[in-house]
Amino acid sequence: MPSSQIERKLAAIMFTDIVGFTKIMGDDETTALTILENQQSLINPIVEEHKGTIIKKMGDGLLIEFPSTVEAVECATKMQNSIKSYNSSDKNIEFHIRIGIHLGDIVILGDDILGDGVNIASRIEPLASPDGICITDAVYQSVKSKLKLDAKRIDEVDLKHIDDKYTIYKLPKHSEEKNDYKQADEVHFTKIEINSIDNATNVPKVYLTMLLYFSGFMFFGMISGYISAIIEEGGDIILELVQFPNDLIDGYIKVYVTNRIFFICSHLFLFIFPLLFSKWRYKLKFQDIRNGSSLLDILILNYGYELISQTKSRIEYLHLPRWGFFINPIVKSKYFPKFLREMSVLRIDIDGNIIRIEGMFYHLKSLLWKLKKYYK
User: Fold this and answer.
1) Domain 3-190 - what CATH class?
2) CA distance to 222, 244, 245, 256, 260, per residue, from 248 (Å)
3) pLDDT, tens digit, for every residue of 175-198?
4) Nearest-CA neighbor of 70 among 90, 88, 84, 52?
């Protein structure tokens, strides 16, 4: 899509999540579905009253956009009060939610929204206490003169896979300490749901590029070996190099005639090797933005990757095989050739619920094969 057609705006983004919903679903599916229905009947009218737009439902969670931070915070407060009132009746099935709100730039893409505003909001929601609200400093500064807030300030908070540290505010101020932000690793999902996996690779281009690199490397090796042999035998280098093409063709024909199996296997290797080691790109779209973190954890924990750099929306990993404990320190050193290390680098670009992955063909294929059970 051309940049001129991309619609951007500043918006207040809210994420909600039912506390412990994964366990509830595992214990009693009927109860879990009833809670979802009750949440919808309580929350939807309040969201509509405060001019909010429910962008998507993600299992037990909601992604909601508001035209202003005041509307978002007032809506969140009313939502929590409504659920508390609902829970006070013994006839009702009790449930609790967390709410996170951030003010930031978003990109409108069809019926979906992307951008830093969405990314940050998704990271702070798990930091809220049950029955509580978590807002960023941008939201607090925007509403502090308009709303009376009883908030607890927490500075220098690390958000998962986000480079910058953030100041957050937790509402109400006197929330239970056991639910502090360090407890943000609670599992929110029964599984990762991937809506689509698209190959974004220009296959002919990346294959031919790697084929040229590989062929050039082999040709340089042959020429070097040929010159070394000439020097060792005391021959005329210029004369022998002129004769090199004919010797190469004669040797090529001789190998074909005498050992066709070797000839065929060597050519298969020549054409398959560039494919395996070429850089491919895939685009994964998740049902829930927070599933991206789960994917990154899988990469780190199960595939031998190590974090080497992290910027605002890009994370880079270096593949270090478990069996390579002798060579891994060399690969990580600053003296290791960059073009060789680049082959083992995996790049992750996060944009809302879309993750773009770039890495070596056989690394990506292995990863996507493992993730295919999550594909809807």
Assistant:
1) alpha beta
2) 10, 6, 5, 12, 17
3) 554 444 344 444 444 456 777 788
4) 52
pLDDT in tens, 88-117: 988 889 999 999 999 988 877 777 777 777
Burial (Cβ within 10 Å: 0-12, 13-18, ≥19) of residue 229: exposed
Which residue is listed with tokens 């069996």? Answer: 323
The answer to which of 24-28, 47-51, 99-103, 115-119 has the lowest mean pLDDT is 115-119
Query: What number of other Cβ atoms are within 10 A of residue 121's Cβ?
Result: 30
Distance CA 6, CA 365 (A): 32
Q: Where are the domains of the chain?
A: 3-190, 203-276, 281-374
Place of tokens 């050739």: 337
The rounded distance, in Å, linking the Cα atoms of 292 and 289 is: 6
CATH of domain 281-374: 3.30.160
pTM: 0.62
Q: Dump pLDDT digits (tens) for 318-352.
A: 877 666 566 667 777 777 777 777 778 888 887 76
- Candidate from 2-16, 169-183, 306-320 with smallest mean pLDDT: 169-183
Q: How far apart are CA 310 and CA 328, in angstroms?
A: 20
Q: What's the token pair of residue 152?
A: 């607890």
Per-residue pLDDT averaged across 267-289, rounded?
Answer: 77
Q: How many CA atoms lie within 13 A of 374 on its CB side?
A: 24
